[in-house]
Design brief:
The chain is α/β, with parallel strands linked by helices and about 300 residues long. Helices cover about 40% and strands about 20% of the residues. The chain has nine helices and ten strands. Helix 2 (about 45-55) links the parallel strand 2 and strand 3 (about 60). Helix 7 runs parallel beside helix 9 (about 280-295). It starts with a strand and ends in a 10-residue tail after the last helix.
Length: about 300
């Protein structure tokens, strides 16, 4: 299907979430908007269910889990080959609001220097709370803090468009021009913080990263890896990739680099220690991620973990 806007949804053993996500996309598809579903080697019948329920959507089957980066890159290449001018990354655990694509299209027309358009993410339950409304990231410290508005009720101050350091991969649009200039997501990062790296690369190349508050999705928050506060994978990739991305974009001399690594480690250890159940496995995940960052081991998390 030829369309200038393509929505990419990556799924890994998330059949029910994926089907709910695609149900909301069905009314948005027209001659200028298409959908490609990228399956990362699911074993839960996702591909069969999508092809049965959403026959008009393109489906790509990866033989194994390529992560967020690899899965989306496959979808991006598919879309670009079919004439996409913009690709929209959408988590399979998010539900896009009806006016979101129109809001992104309007912003693309108004902001010709924008390479990335960042959508707003609301927590699915309770439905009026913000998960992402823009965010800063300071590579010198390896720190971004909470997204703007996190946990707060949506309010007028979070409905103002403007520049942001990074977009969230759960809902972001990227232009063909930016992709041709900067390239795809980094497969070596696999999952988590790859969207930060991408946005930093876009900004370094002279593109705007622009927050579009009227492009809204409701996010069920890291469902594929166990939830925002219940995933050893989130902690492992978080600490490993935060260190990698910070060192890539803000090199420091050894003493300061060591201090930054220690700071990042302490932040993630604090998160792990706040978890009430399975604390040992969470701490172990942080330490494994830190060790792999120091050793330069990237890609998918080792099976030993």
């Amino acid at each position: 299907m030829a369309a200038s806007w393509w929505i990419i949804v990556v799924s890994w053993n998330g059949r029910d979430d994926t089907l709910s996500c695609l149900d909301a996309l069905r009314p948005l598809v027209d001659s200028d908007v298409a959908v490609v579903v990228v399956d990362n080697g699911s074993t839960d019948g996702t591909v069969e269910a999508v092809r049965t329920r959403h026959r008009g959507f393109d489906v790509l089957e990866n033989k194994r889990n390529l992560g967020f980066s690899g899965g989306n890159n496959a979808g991006i290449r598919h879309a670009l080959e079919r004439g996409a001018e913009w690709v929209v990354l959408l988590n399979n655990d998010a539900t896009l609001e009806p006016g979101a694509i129109m809001a992104l299209q309007a912003a693309a027309a108004q902001r010709p220097r924008a390479g990335v358009l960042a959508g707003k993410l609301l927590i699915a339950d309770p439905p009026d709370r913000i998960w992402f409304a823009g965010q800063s990231f300071w590579p010198a410290f390896g720190y971004g803090g909470r997204p703007r508005g996190y946990g707060r009720r949506d309010a007028p101050r979070y409905r103002i468009p403007g520049p942001t350091d990074r977009a969230a991969g759960a809902l972001m649009a990227v232009s063909r021009t930016a992709l041709q200039t900067v390239g795809l997501l980094d497969n070596e990062l696999f999952a988590y913080v790859e969207d930060v790296d991408w946005c930093l690369r876009m900004r370094a190349a002279g593109f705007e990263v622009w927050f579009v508050p009227d492009a809204v999705a409701r996010h069920r928050v890291s469902a594929s890896t166990g939830g925002e506060r219940g995933s050893t994978h989130a902690l492992y990739y978080g600490v490993r990739n935060t260190i990698a991305v910070s060192e890539r974009h803000r090199p420091l001399p050894w003493p300061l680099r060591s201090l930054r690594r220690g700071f990042v480690l302490s932040v993630f250890l604090a998160q792990a220690l706040l978890l009430s159940e399975g604390r040992t496995s969470f701490v172990r995940a942080v330490l494994d991620g830190f060790a792999d960052a120091r050793a330069g081991r990237y890609g998918e998390r080792s099976r030993r973990a």
